[in-house]
Amino acid sequence: MKNKLTPALILLVLALSACAPQAVQTPLAAESQPMPLATVESESAAVGFSEDVLPIFVESCNDCHGAKQTKAGLDLTTYESLMAGSSNGAVILAGNSAESILVQQVVDGEMPKRGDKLTTEQIQIIRQWVDAGASND
Ligand code: HEC
After folding, report:
1. 114: Cβ–Cβ under 8 A, 6 or more apart, which residues?
2. Where are the domains of the chain?
3. Does the Cβ of 99 fall within 6 Å of ligand 1?
4. pLDDT in tens, 62-109
5. Does the N-terminal peptide bond of residue 21 adopt cis geometry, omega within 30 degrees of 0?
6. Cα angle, residue 10 at apex, residues 7 and 11 outer, rounded to 5°
7. Ligand 1 atom with minimal separation from the 102 CA
8. Scanning 29, 53, 63, 66, which has the fewest C-beta atoms within 10 Å of its C-beta?
9. What share of the chain is helix, strand, coil (3-state, %, to 5)?
């Protein structure tokens, strides 16, 4: 019984291993490269303050720039407080992410001061929102 099954099993394993790499690699290869850029770009029009930007501040910034404390005089809990800026002045220059101190700080990895840095996608969301005019949407 066992002796008859063994060759059949070996054949099955061989057949599977010959097919498996292709079956696994093809969908991955098709998805992995064009996806990130295309996703970011196609969503650019849809980036909004309350839905996309504020959750990033809640997750990574509000411990120091929120209800408990406002480091540098900067409160990142609402649109109004964000646009009011820090004790040094505005941190967002609407329409110009490159000149916005807040964007510079997250791009340089200065902020958040502690904890995990923002991901490339999160930084991209903030940038797009600022470049699109930093509106309260
Ligand atoms: C662990 C505390 C902490 C966290 C978390 C944090 N910050 Fe700060 N932030 C500070 C401190 C303290 C300063 C004052 C400058 C300094 O010490 O570097 C500051 C300064 C800033 C400034 C400069 C204000 C100015 O005009 O000088 C910006 C902009 C800023 N933070 C944005 C953010 C953003 C955006 C996040 C979240 C992604 C964040 N911070 C998270 C502590 C924090």
Report:
1. 64
2. 2-33, 40-131
3. no
4. 999 999 999 999 999 999 999 999 999 999 999 999 999 999 999 999
5. no
6. 85
7. 29
8. 29
9. 60, 5, 35
